Amino acid sequence: MVSSVHYNTSILVPIELSSVQMRVKKQKRHRRAVRFYTACFGFRDPFKVLCDGTFVHHLIANRITPADTALANILGATVKLFTTRCVLAELKSLGASYHESLNAANNLIMARCDHENRRSAVDCITEVIGESNSEHFFVATQDADLRRSLQKIPGVPAIYALRNTLFLEQPSSFQRQFAQSAEEERLHMTDMEYNMLRLRKKRKLSDDKEGDSSDAQEEEDDVSHVFNTNVKRNGSDVKDKVHFKRKRAKGPNPLSVKKKKKSADTNGTTSGKESKHADGTASVGKSFAPDWLCNIRRNFD
């Protein structure tokens, strides 16, 4: 007798779906973070990733290789891996247990740090990043204190690893607030730009006065409507809408007007065609016989 075995799949399916959903959500978070840095801070692919010794050692210990492919998967674009001479010196000082990590770090591109004497990797990376991260580096590190300090610098994304999985940190509230304030500043006109525009307006008006004073007055009225948007009403400043002067039609385009046709001859004669008189005689073209010859013809008829 064969016994049938029934598997309860109601427990397995939710676990499998939850892992897939978590993976999809993580990818969406990474894409949103990358879009934020590309749109607000000008990051462009291939992305540059600055790695310290702790991150390189974690990649080697957990066999996350090749590293550039793993980083490209979370960033969604090709990457270039960088390190510094101070990081290499720190790995070398840690002894034989970090020998494999040192060999892997030697294959990375060297970022310029200009340190004659060796410094710690944290100080070196902090100085390379600076105050604005002008080189647009992604910093890959396992140091939590370094990641927290980088969150206070605008435009510095951080990458870390947990076991055999890589993560991209979400932008901090400081970085989001900095990007929003920078966007608001770009929308407003600076004092220097306003002064340049005012000088250009004066120069334009002076040139128009020499040629045509009426056109200059219209230009001045149009510019005044653009800049003077605060109008006093009943003793209070009320922000009014900008009103522009409408341009009136000056006439049809002569190139689009149909040409007039020539009027027909009103003398009652047709050129080159035969015409009949009242008495039945015919004449051709514009040549007519004299009156005395016509009388003779009538007598003969």
TrEMBL record:
Coiled coil: none
Top-rank lineage group of the source organism: Eukaryota
Localization in the cell: Nucleus, Nucleolus
Entry GO CC: small-subunit processome
Region (Disordered): 203-287
Record domain UTP23 sensor motif region: where: 245-262
Main location: nucleus
Keywords (A to Z) from UniProt: Nucleus, Ribosome biogenesis, rRNA processing
Stated name of the protein: UTP23 sensor motif region domain-containing protein
Organism: Anisodus acutangulus
